[in-house]
Amino acid sequence: MYQEAMMMMLPLLALVVAFYWRKAMGIVESCAEEGCIPDPVPVPKAQSARSKERRRRGKDPFKGVKGKKMLEKLEVARSVSSSSSSRDTPTSPVPPSSPSEPDVELIPEEPIEFPTLYSTPTPTQLLEEARQREEQMRESLERYEEMMQWEREAWRRREAEMQAQIHQLMYQMQAYAALVSPTWYPIERGRRRRRDDDDDDDEDVSELLVDAILKRPERIIRKRAVS
């Protein structure tokens, strides 16, 4: 299909090319018969030196009414500046009078010594520095002693408070032991026995604590009151 279309288009293309070829050839032949000459290239005209100078300088700004006014203003400004410069010019200075020479020449008897940064200290300065260091050390020791004394007094107060609390607790324990310790106290199965006077105090205290934990204090106190 594509080949058939191309075969049909080839004659048309050949006709178009032949038409334009004949047309171009006819134009060339007509130009050769009539002698057609292209338009000449325009050549710039030669200018005189005066016109070139005028163009280079440009238009004169001082022509006309405005130019005259500008010239007048410039002349006034020049006159004012010249008058001010003449006023500002100083007069010839008067040469200063030479000072009178002193009658006696002042010559220092001893050379002047200027203190330097790296000057060696004198013995008096060393003694003064040592005295200042000693005073500072003494003050620091005094402050340390005062601080230690305050700490000692605080520890003594705390110790006295602890001893008072211990005495108070011991007194309370003795009062509680005297309150809950009866003359006769029950043993298992309802039997009673008399406490031996030779028993150790530690055993008595332990027995009293066991009775206080296992029995009710009200019951013990009631039995003691009844007995």
Keywords:
mainly alpha; two-stranded antiparallel sheet; 66% helix; signal
Topology (SSEs and partners):
Blueprint: H1 2-34, H2 49-57, H3 64-88, H4 123-180, E1 184-186, E2 192-194, H5 201-214, H6 217-226
Antiparallel strand pairs: 1-2
Structural description of this entry:
The chain is mainly α. Helix content is 66%, strand content 3%. The chain has helices at 2-34, 49-57, 64-88, 123-180, 201-214, 217-226; strands at residues 184-186, 192-194. It has a two-stranded antiparallel ribbon with strand order 1-2. Strand 1 and strand 2 (192-194) form a beta hairpin. The longest helix has 58 residues, at 123-180. The termini are far apart. Mean pLDDT is 69; it is low at 185-195. Keywords: Signal. Residues 1-26 form the signal peptide. Residues 78-91 have a biased composition (Low complexity). Residues 59-76 have a biased composition (Basic and acidic residues). Residues 36-105 are annotated as: Disordered.
Brief overview:
With 227 residues, the protein is an all-alpha fold. It has helices at residues 2-34, 49-57, 64-88, 123-180, 201-214, 217-226; strands spanning 184-186, 192-194.
Taken from the alpha-carbon principal axes, the silhouette is: elongated
Structural class: mainly alpha
* Estimated radius of gyration: 70 Å
Q: Compute the number of strand runs.
A: 2
Beta-strand portion reads under 5%
Please state the average pLDDT score.
69
Q: In what order do the strands lie side by side in the largest sheet?
A: 1-2
User: What is the number of helical segments per DSSP (H or I, 4+ residues)?
Assistant: 6
Estimated helix fraction: 55-70%
* Residue windows where pLDDT falls under 50 for at least 5 positions: 185-195
Please give the alpha-carbon distance between the first and last residues: 145 Å
Element pattern in H and E = HHHHEEHH
Q: Largest sheet, if any?
A: 2 strands, antiparallel
Biased composition (Low complexity): 78-91
Keywords: Signal
Signal peptide: 1-26
Region (Disordered): 36-105
